[in-house]
Amino acid sequence: MLYTVDCPLCGAEQKNLGLEETGGPFICSKCGEQVNLAMEKKLTEAQAHKDTDE
After folding, report:
1. pTM of the prediction?
2. Which residue from 9, 11, 35, 48 has the fewest beta carbons nearer than 10 Å?
């Protein structure tokens, strides 16, 4: 399942992330920082929206 989330550091939208595969971490395509959503806060529907274009 792919997700679209906003980077909590710079606010850039990150699309098509396989957060279930990685357990939450991703590298932001704008600021280049590694972000771990599992550590930041629990991933919820309000924070990440499932992409419908799989």
Report:
1. 0.66
2. 11
